[in-house]
Amino acid sequence: MRISPLRSLLSSLLSSLICALFGVLALTLAAEVSAQIFPSKPLRIIVPNAAGGAADITARTVGQKLAEAMGQPVIVENKPSAGGIIAAEQVAKADPDGHTILLISSGTAVSAALFKSLTFDTRKDFAPVSKLASFDLVIAVADNSRFKTLNDLLAFAKGNPGKLNIGTPQVGTTQNLAAEFFKSAAGVDMQVVPFNGTPPVISALRGGNLDAMVDILGPLMPQIASKALRPLALLGDGHAAQLPGIPAAHEAGGSLAKFSAASWNGLAVPAKTPKEIVTKLNREITRILALPDVKQRLADLTLVAQSSTPEQLATLLDSDIKRWADVIERAKIPKQ
Predict the structure, then answer these.
(1) Bond before 219 cis per omega within 30 degrees
(2) Rounded Cα distance, 61 and 54, in Å
(3) How far apart are CA 270 and CA 92, in angstroms?
(4) Does residue 1 register a pLDDT over 50?
């Protein structure tokens, strides 16, 4: 019996559709099985910072609890480099099985905006898992400074264009760009002076060679506690438990009313990691960050434990890339 061309075509299409459906089903079942047996070996958290700093301690604090929950060791590997590029490259090229994790931060967003050519795409090559913590940036002056409040500093800057000097760590750091962002938002002409790290900024400020500085709160707390430095304002949205009575910069109102610049860190995995594994990691990290001892450990570093959904972290990363790209352009900072 002769089969009509139409019937033959329909039969072929039906066969293709069945094969496709079986393929999707097989992939779905494979992902579910993979998530059920995950982790099947030690996990590695790649940290783009040196050992002993806030990022490293955060990773180790969370990693220890994650090891207990997952039944597998969690190894923290420090891969410091300019812009965290080496660590990011390693994770971008790793097997997307959830066993290799990258500690990302506001610095990751800065690098995406600052470097002209990277071997990876920050938006496309990583799957955000969860935010870990947020931490404050602060404007501080020497304790004997004539500026008693942020409004004092702003009034001087407006009345003396180009004469106010604010120090920060290196060009392109979150602190440096936050100072440039503050300068632009406040609408003042001031000099942002980069130094090779935080200690020389503190020395210059205490020696009278700077009017103020912008840096992460944690490294400045010993200087603030000893009365060598005095904080004028926090650059984020709220207040810090360690600095009762110190306002946020946006409380100055005017053009600063919507100003906010804070730092954060989180975890991400290679982009093709199965969603079920990302969800499993997110669930455990959310639970860990709610533990009282973990919250206290991070608070001791002036960090606020703060989890998120993968989608929320992706949105934060994307918005920060756009923000810092705009700041870099307005400040005319050459891309590297």
Answers:
(1) no
(2) 10
(3) 5
(4) no
The answer to whether residue 310 scores a pLDDT higher than 60 is yes
Residues 43-78: pLDDT tens digits?
999 999 989 888 999 999 999 999 999 999 999 999
In what side-by-side order are the strands of the sheet with 100-105? 74-78, 43-47, 100-105, 263-270, 126-135, 303-305
Distances (CA, A) of 135 to 23, 58, 117, 292: 46, 12, 29, 18
Q: Are 178 and 212 in contact (CB under 8 A)?
A: no
Q: pTM here?
A: 0.85
As a whole number of angstroms, the distance between CA 31 and CA 38 comes to 10
State the DSSP code for 3. P
In 3-state terms, what secondary structure has residue 328? helix
* Cα gap 262→181, rounded to integer Å: 11
Summary mean pLDDT of the chain = 91
Strands 74-78 and 229-234: unpaired
* 335: phi then psi, degrees, rounded to nearest 5: -75, 145
